[in-house]
């Protein structure tokens, strides 16, 4: 399911011209970060409707990145979630 969303996000972005030239990973990561910042601003304003929309934008940008680079995000997420279950409380005493 997640990999299908990656494929769809990439195909949509491609159809809108966002992949006419190869995109650098750094650019795609910066765009993901910009959506995280928009979510932060929405939260600061107490705008719950916009907050969840910006979180969706974060996911869509991540899906686009993974779709464009043919990365198996679904496998990576499932693997990392299993690994996280084995980690220690607060990952060994980290403050946050
Ligand atoms: Mg946005």
Describe the model.
- The protein is mostly helical.
- The protein has one domain: Helix Hairpins (Orthogonal Bundle).
- It is 75% helix and 0% strand.
- The protein contains five helices and no strands.
- It has helices at 2-15, 25-44, 48-68, 73-85, 90-93.
- Helix 2 (25-44) packs antiparallel against helix 3.
- The longest helix has 21 residues, at 48-68.
- Bound molecules: magnesium ion.
What tags apply to this protein structure?
0% strand; globular; mainly alpha; 75% helix; 5 helices; Helix Hairpins; binds magnesium ion; 96 residues
SSE topology sketch:
Layout lengths: L1 H14 L9 H20 L3 H21 L4 H13 L4 H4 L3
Briefly say what this structure is.
The protein is built from 5 helices and no strands. With 96 residues, the chain is an all-alpha fold.
Shape: globular
Mean pLDDT score, rounded? 97
CATH topology: Helix Hairpins
Radius of gyration: 16 Å
Helical/strand content category: mainly alpha
Number of E-type strands? 0
- Distance separating the two termini: 31 Å
